[in-house]
Automatic annotation (TrEMBL):
<dbReference type="GO" id="GO:0008610">
    <property type="term" value="P:lipid biosynthetic process"/>
</dbReference>
<dbReference type="InterPro" id="IPR012223">
    <property type="entry name" value="TEII"/>
</dbReference>
<keyword id="KW-0560">Oxidoreductase</keyword>
<dbReference type="Pfam" id="PF00975">
    <property type="entry name" value="Thioesterase"/>
</dbReference>
<dbReference type="InterPro" id="IPR001031">
    <property type="entry name" value="Thioesterase"/>
</dbReference>
<dbReference type="GO" id="GO:0016491">
    <property type="term" value="F:oxidoreductase activity"/>
</dbReference>
<comment type="similarity">
    <text>Belongs to the thioesterase family.</text>
</comment>
<feature type="domain" description="Thioesterase">
    <location>
        <begin position="27"/>
        <end position="250"/>
    </location>
</feature>
<protein>
    <submittedName>
        <fullName>Linear gramicidin dehydrogenase LgrE</fullName>
        <ecNumber>1.1.-.-</ecNumber>
    </submittedName>
</protein>
<dbReference type="InterPro" id="IPR029058">
    <property type="entry name" value="AB_hydrolase_fold"/>
</dbReference>
Length: 253
């Protein structure tokens, strides 16, 4: 198996392919946590051995979309990914989302299903069910220091080195603020459950979302549902790409 047939490739515009097996049978479209892109998964993706192609969503303000303004609404962003993905999803594909990315992947799954091109499954991680998503207080009014404290207290995610690096703060914080604004703007609208298998993964030490909250995703599928807990905190997915993909594949068998 050729693990890195395309080490880093851009799939059209909206996704970056970071792994492609020579015998790939399944397209994986992965949406990262707030502020992140494909770079957060590259190291862990080196351990992937499944027959898949791993494509990571590229959101505005980062990587090859660095110059894109942070102005799109959540609906506009989901529509953009839908318009990019829907015309070329002939092969079996799955959606995987981590935290904020779970909401993105869920909303995209709904649109793709309504268009008659559903994914074969959805995997969500470290985010409460769509009708339970709550982020209070809202973060827009917080100073940079207060915002870093908020991130650290809620998610345990701020390296000490970041606080002393003004250039990194200037680059990183606007992107995270933007993604969290999108999450905070979400207003749940009741819809039919997805007719596809749904896998929910919780982190055993996640400060933000516990397994009980993840269990509530069961109401959002009319197909099979499974909840599993993986060792780690809110960011366990960045170090567990292969186990997550493997669990996703196992749910299809």
């Amino acid at each position: 198996m050729d693990r890195f047939a395309r080490p880093i490739a851009i799939l059209e515009f909206m996704f970056r392919t970071i792994y492609e097996a020579a015998d790939s049978k399944l397209q994986v479209f992965w949406f990262c946590h707030a502020g992140a892109g494909s770079a957060s998964l590259v190291r862990s993706a080196r351990h992937v051995s499944a027959p898949v192609t791993l494509n990571v969503a590229s959101l505005p303000g980062r990587e090859h979309r660095f110059r894109d303004g942070l102005t799109m609404s959540l609906d506009e962003l989901v529509d953009q990914f839908f318009e990019d993905l829907q015309p070329r999803v002939g092969a079996p594909f799955v959606l995987i989302g981590h935290s904020f990315g779970s909401l993105m992947s869920y909303l995209l799954a709904q649109k793709l299903t309504a268009a008659g091109t559903p994914p074969v499954s959805l995997t969500v991680m470290t985010l409460a069910a769509p009708d339970r998503v709550q982020f209070n207080p809202r973060t827009a009014h917080l100073s940079d220091e207060e915002f870093l404290d908020y991130l650290d207290n809620r998610f345990g995610s701020v390296p000490k080195s970041l606080r002393t690096n003004p250039e990194a703060i200037a680059l990183f914080l606007p992107i995270v603020r933007y993604d969290l604004r999108l999450l905070e703007s979400y207003v749940h609208q009741p819809v039919q459950p997805l007719p596809i298998p749904l896998l929910a993964l919780a982190g055993s030490r996640d400060r933000a979302v516990n397994a009980e909250q993840m269990q509530q995703w069961q109401r959002f599928t009319s197909d099979s549902f499974a909840l599993e807990t993986i060792a780690g905190g809110h960011f366990f997915p960045t170090e567990n790409v292969q186990p997550i993909i493997q669990r996703t594949i196992e749910r299809l068998q």
